[in-house]
Design brief:
Chain A: Its main location: nucleus. Chain A: Keywords: DNA-directed RNA polymerase, Nucleus, Transcription. Chain A: InterPro entries: DNA-dir_RNA_pol_30-40kDasu_CS (IPR001514), DNA-dir_RNA_pol_insert (IPR011262), DNA-dir_RNA_pol_RpoA/D/Rpb3 (IPR011263), RBP11-like (IPR036603), RNAP_Rpo3/Rpb3/RPAC1 (IPR022842), RNApol_insert_sf (IPR036643), Rpo3/RPB3_RNA_Pol_subunit (IPR050518). Chain A: It holds the Pfam family RNA_pol_L. The complex is a heterodimer of chains A (334) and B (153). Chain A contains 4 helices and 10 strands, in the order E-E-H-E-H-E-E-E-E-E-E-H-E-H. Chain A is of the alpha+beta class and 334 residues long. Chain A has a domain of 128 residues: Beta Complex (RNA Polymerase Alpha Subunit, Chain A, domain 2), CATH 2.170.120.12. Chain B folds into 2 domains: 34 residues; 100 residues, RNA polymerase, RBP11-like subunit (Gyrase A, domain 2). A 4-stranded antiparallel β-sheet of chain B has the order 1-2-4-3, with helices on one face. Chain B is elongated. Classes of the chains: A alpha+beta (334), B alpha+beta (153). Chains A and B meet through strand 1, strand 2, helix 1 and helix 4 of A and helix 2, strand 1, strand 2, helix 3 and helix 4 of B.
Chain lengths: 334, 153
């Protein structure tokens, strides 16, 4: 038997292909071909949870005589999509030199409404007014796409009720809180005919007649009756449907997603190569050097030779343990 | 220190931490010393946040385990796949040891002639290249789509 591990006999050797089937201001539907499912899933995950956007993070309420509690309103304000154009020039508040927040790491918005008429009054995102210096004229402006031009409803006021507050919008990612998610939804699909049998379809009498075909079913060859199962088959066509929440254009979400992966990789490569430059790799290192009985687990085996600073604790110092993973309910926001 | 008024020392006696009233001044000096140490520890922890990969103990040149801080399946699975495609790599796998710790471990075993660290670096660069290609293809496809739309409109 001739087996050459170098032979790239699969479709991947052709290189990735991208085909766009629909693109407008709200969504982009595209197909990624000749990539592995692991990369396709990385792209999906990163677009879902790791693209920086801007959302209201702090609310200072001056007066609130509405029927809704302060914290209830603050939560609603946080979920309002804000335009994230140019957010890459905004600093994370935690990285900024300022005390709490400043124009380099936040956008201020104010809301002041009083019902002076005799009928109940609606207060919506349109009434949020950005104030102070901004990176550009769009960053932090509430996204308004409805035909009335009011944006999402925040609360309603009865006659004589008043709401006055100031919001601080900060940069963040959806891994920390879903309000920073750039996408309303990301559709991700492969193998519409279930040829690979990754799905176990529930049925009463016949799965084929009871399950509606996917819109991508006609893009791929239907299975031939009586065809033997192909054990070597791997998914090769991935169908994405990226729908924006309005803060970034849909194709911008895809581009930003790839950029976030790139930044992640660049950071790691930098760290690896920097270690070599210091002679950390060629110098004393584990396991020979640290094989003594007093080896501190997690203390001394770091790559860069500056590992003496390590402690086993606090490795995830910058994150909350709950926000760190998106494996559960990753598609939970709606 | 020894010239402190007696009254202050008596007040310190009431503190439950002092077990040796005779050498009170010494213990105070010690406490101060510990305070300094704690401050140093804090600074070190801050520096540590910047380190995102470390080599786990028990690793050899051709068989190593790495621990990535603040990474998950997003990087782990893609990295595992791309490293495994390297013909010089004998084995590569990733794991998230505990779901509530933002850590991801990668195990790499290579054949002779390369090291696990080289294989890791090559893997990272390979994904970068892949990202570049996909970006180019996406941008081209978007431009193509926009052009077709303009023609039909």
């Amino acid at each position: 038997m001739d087996y050459d591990p170098m032979a790239m006999d699969d479709a991947e050797s052709l290189g990735p292909v991208v085909k766009i089937s629909q693109a407008d201001s709200v969504r982009v539907k595209f197909e990624l071909q000749n990539a592995d499912i692991s990369f396709a899933n990385s792209l999906r995950r990163v677009m879902l949870a790791e693209i920086p956007t801007i959302a209201i993070d702090l609310v200072e309420i001056e007066s609130n005589s509405s029927v809704l509690a302060d914290e209830f309103i603050a939560h609603r304000l946080g979920l309002i999509p804000l335009n994230a154009e140019g957010v890459e020039n905004l600093l994370y508040s935690r990285d900024c030199d300022c005390e709490e927040y400043c124009e380099h790491c936040s956008v201020r918005l104010t809301l002041h409404a009083k019902c002076t008429g005799y009928e109940n009054m609606s207060v919506s995102a349109r009434d949020l007014v950005p104030v102070g210096d901004r990176m550009n004229q769009n960053l932090g402006t509430p996204v308004i796409t409805d035909k009335d031009g009011t944006g999402p409803l925040i609360l309603k006021l009865r006659p004589d009720q008043e709401i006055k507050l100031e919001c601080i919008a900060k940069k963040g990612i959806a891994k920390e809180h879903a309000k920073w998610a750039p996408s309303a939804a990301i559709g991700f699909e492969y193998d519409p005919h279930n040829k690979l049998r990754h799905l176990d379809l529930w049925y009463e009498t016949d799965a084929k007649t009871e399950w509606p075909p996917s819109e991508y079913a006609k893009w791929e060859e239907p299975p031939v009756e009586g065809e033997p199962f192909d054990f070597d088959a791997v998914p090769n066509h991935f169908y994405y449907n990226v729908e924006t929440a309005g803060n970034l254009p849909p194709d911008g979400i895809v581009a930003e997603g790839i950029k976030v992966i790139q930044q992640k990789l660049a950071g790691l490569i930098h760290e690896l190569t920097e270690g070599e430059g210091e002679g950390g790799y060629d110098g004393p290192r584990s396991p020979e050097y640290h094989s003594g009985p007093d080896t501190n687990y997690g203390y001394s085996t770091s790559y860069g030779g500056n590992g003496g600073n390590q402690s086993a604790w606090g490795g995830g110092g910058g994150t909350t343990p709950f926000g760190g993973q998106t494996s559960y309910g990753g598609g939970g926001w709606s | 220190m020894a010239a402190r008024p007696e009254s202050e020392d008596i007040a310190m006696d009431d503190a439950p931490t002092s077990h040796q009233p005779e050498v009170k001044d010494d213990t105070m000096v010690d406490d101060e010393g510990e305070d300094v140490d704690e401050n140093e520890d804090d600074e070190e922890e801050e520096e540590e946040e910047t380190q995102r990969v470390k080599l786990l103990p028990g690793s050899t040149e051709t068989a190593a385990s790495f621990e990535f801080a603040n990474e998950g399946h997003t990087l782990g699975n893609a990295l595992r796949y791309v490293i495994m495609r390297n013909p010089d790599v004998e084995f590569c796998a990733y794991a998230i040891p505990h779901p509530s710790e933002a850590k991801m471990n990668v195990r790499i075993q290579t054949f002779e002639g390369t090291t696990a660290i080289e294989a890791l670096e090559k893997g990272l660069r390979d994904i970068q290249e892949l990202c570049d290609v996909v970006t180019d293809k996406f941008v081209a496809a978007a431009a193509d789509f926009a052009q077709k739309k303009a023609v039909t409109a």
